[in-house]
C-alpha cells in the first residue's frame, strides 16, 4: 500500500501530538505514525511551567487541563547533610499534570484517523523525483510525505538521518510514581526537593488527593538485569529519608516507572547540529533531549509544536499537499523556508536551556574539582536563567 500525505509526523508522544494539533488549529492536516499499538501515556507525571501553559493556551487545552491539577505555590528545598532548608514562592505558574491527562487531551482534539497506531517506521529516504520522502514501515507499507517531522524521541532515527549524532546519557536511575490519598494529603501546594549526597527525592502534589514523587540515585557500573532490581536499588535509600517522605513512597500506587538512563543532547550539538535537511526536520526530544533537572523537556516540546506550525502555516497557508495551484519546486522552497525560520527561532532558546542543564548535570556528577568549578562559573554567568526559561513565551500560533 502506498499513501501520499502532506505533513507526516513520526512519533505520537507529547511533541508529535502537539504538533499535529497545532497544525490542525491552523487548518493544516497531518498524519501521526506511532509504533505503539495504543496511546502512550507512561512516564507518570510532568511538571508544566508557565512557558508550557502558554503553549497549551495556544493549543486550546489550558483551561481543561488546569482543572486537573492544582497550582504549586512554593519550592521547599532540603539539604539534610548541610542542615539547610529554603522556602521560596514559585512566582510563575507551575502545575504537575498526569501525563495521561495531557496525552489524552492532545489526542482527543485530533480528527479521527490522524494517528496511525502500530505503525513502526523502519527507514525512509528523500526521493527528488516525487519531491517527497518515502517512508517504509516494518510490515512493508510505504507512505510518501511532502514534509517529514521527526518527533520520535531521544533516540530518533530522523535525528540520525540529519547527522545530529547520538545523545549522551547520565548513569542515573529514576523511579517515578504516584501516591493516592483518599481523604486528602497533608502536603499542601509545595514542591519538595530533598537532596542528599548520593540521592534525591522530589514530591509534587497533582491535586488534593494525589501526589507525584520521583527518587533518583546514580547507577552502579554493573547496571541492572531487570526493572525490579533497579527499583529496589533506588528504594534502598528510603532508609535515609525522614519518615514522612519514606511513608509516602512506601504506600505508592501499584504503577511505577523506572528510568535507567537519563538522555541528553550536549549543548554543542544543539548549537551546531543540523536540524533540517530538505523538507525533513525534528522537534521535541529528537531535537533537544535534556536531563530533567529543570522539568522543561515536555514544555519545550510544546513550544516547538507552536513555532513549527506557525512557520509552516505562514509559508504554506493552503497546506502542503500539491493541489495543482503551486508547482512542486515552488512548494518545496516554501517548506524549506518555513523550516529554516522554525530552526532559527528555536535554536538560541534551546541552546541556552541545554547549556544550563548540561552544566547543572556535570556539576552533580563530575569527580574533578576543576570541572565542577567550570560548571559553577558557567551557571553563575548564565544568571537566573532557569527562572527565565520557565517564563518564556513562544508567541501566538
Ligand atoms: C525522568 C524524567 C522526568 C521528566 N520530567 C519532566 C517534567 O517534569 N517536565 C517536563 O516538561 N519534561 C519532563 N521530562 C521530559 C519529557 O518527558 C520529554 O521531554 C517529553 O516527553 C518528550 O516528548 P517527545 O514527544 O519529544 O518524545 P517521546 O515522548 O519519547 O515520544 C516519541 C514517540 O515516538 C515513537 N517512535 C519512536 N520511534 C518511532 C518509529 N521508528 N516509528 C514510529 N514511532 C516511533 C515512540 O513510540 C514515542 O511514542 C522528563 C523526562 C524524564 C526522563
UniProtKB/TrEMBL annotation:
The keyword Oxidoreductase applies. The keyword Repeat does not apply. Keywords: Monooxygenase, Oxidoreductase. Residues 7-313 form the FAD-binding domain. GO terms for molecular function: FAD binding; monooxygenase activity. SUPFAM superfamilies: FAD/NAD(P)-binding domain. InterPro entries: FAD-bd, FAD/NAD-bd_sf, MOase. Belongs to the 3-hydroxybenzoate 6-hydroxylase family. This is FAD-binding domain-containing protein.
